[in-house]
Backbone:
């Protein structure tokens, strides 16, 4: 149970970065932290103590097997998250080229 609480704390740190920081790079890092916390939570849902790998053999009894579905979801999520991070970094670079700053408050003042 304490591991799930640590996932919640990690997610809360990322959410704090997204909501309170004014620097675009710090916001992107906060989004990445939130993504990693969600991935860790999914992996912990499928974990079994002294679990076997999810490989089925006809002569074995299926007992205490690790759930493969969260592992597959996290593998897909990592690939999608990487593409999202690349897109966010590309947008941040374009914003810096146009406005010369990563500060959101200065960018809002420079509208025009």
Residues:
């Amino acid at each position: 149970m304490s591991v799930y609480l640590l996932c919640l704390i990690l997610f809360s740190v990322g959410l704090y970065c997204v909501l309170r920081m004014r620097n675009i790079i710090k916001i992107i890092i906060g989004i990445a932290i939130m993504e990693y916390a969600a991935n860790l939570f999914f992996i912990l849902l499928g974990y079994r103590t002294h679990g076997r790998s999810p490989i089925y053999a006809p002569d074995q009894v299926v007992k205490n097997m690790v759930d493969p579905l969260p592992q597959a979801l996290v593998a897909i999520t990592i690939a999608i998250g990487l593409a999202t991070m690349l897109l966010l970094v590309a947008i941040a670079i374009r914003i810096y080229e146009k406005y010369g700053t990563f500060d959101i408050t200065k960018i809002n003042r420079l509208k025009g």
